[in-house]
Amino acid sequence: MRLMTNRRALPVAAAGLAAALLLGACSSSGSGGGSSSSAGGGSSGAASSGKPPHETIGYVDIAASGGMQKRWYNFLTAAAKPLGWTVKMTDANGVASTALQGVQSYVSQGVNAIIISCVDTGPLVPGLAAAKAANIPVIALGCEVPPPTNLYSATYAENEQSLATSLNNYLNKALKAKTCQQVAVLQDNTILVGRERSTYFINALKGSGFNIVATPVIPETSIVPSTTTAISATLAAQPGTCAFVPAFDFSVGPAVAELQALGKSSTVGVYSYYADDVNLPLLRKPNSALQAVVDGPVEQVSLVAIDQLLAHFMKGAVIDPSAASSLTVPFTVFTKANAPANPAGYITPWSISTYLTPYLQKWNSTYNLKLR
Length: 372
Hints:
By secondary structure, the chain is an alpha/beta fold. It has helices spanning 10-23, 46-49, 67-83, 96-109, 125-133, 160-177, 192-207, 223-237, 252-261, 279-284, 300-315, 352-367, and strands spanning 4-6, 30-38, 56-61, 86-91, 113-117, 138-142, 154-157, 182-186, 211-214, 243-246, 269-273, 290-295, 328-330, 332-335. The longest helix is centred in the middle third of the chain and has 18 residues, at 160-177.
């Protein structure tokens, strides 16, 4: 489910979410269930403990070390913790077969639900089919997934076209002001979301009159060497290139490092997505080639996933595939001039408590819980 988006200020969006809800309402590697983030022991029921019965969620991540991937997981575990739920992590490290092993392991373990972040459907079909046969709900989180989507209970994802449009609108002004017309897009074709984002952005740039000089593909299994090669090869073939746009935040760090090594940091800019814990320090660094990132509180979908699972476990409710459709996600372009602070332990510019608190209030009211 794509998110509705606009550019309203964050407090307004958060207040709107809170009102709607009140009216109605880190990781480590492993290929078979991996590590777990335990939110406390199980509970026999809400009436005596103020918490729901204990549930175990199996979480499969395409690349848990990715800055944005940490954000989906961070919001999800923050919501699971007060419920007393356990979240187990499988980090696929960009390898689909490892993700499949994780899903299959979780089915064998009999977890209560499985959440899969940014892994395409095809390689997972045997595991997804096994989960469906075992009546284990599966939610795709963070990224749209290709068919067969009926193997998932729901997909809660960011809006790739809105992200691309927001960044393109900024570049259309910023780059043209610098008379920069030659742009390279570092594509991803490993998963659907990478292909979507790459396509949306290339088309948006072309529509704005930019000359797309190169579109190298960056495999998720060799991000650093592939990005480094793409930067150097593009500049050798197209020395007038003045901007690189990585489709995925994974490539931002290697791109900035290579431009610095080539002595191009002051003449060639990098523009991408997310002020995450990898990108933000680079954005705040005065001499870094990273000039701007577009961002928004897209990780709200993690809270929607937990909200839907809680209703499913407590009331037997069917998980609603459209549950994230009413979320408001304002996008902001962060530059060196307005970059957020970078305190110790930073993961996201968006406050978890701002978005989680309305859900806790909803859950306390709806299920007679005592969550804080």
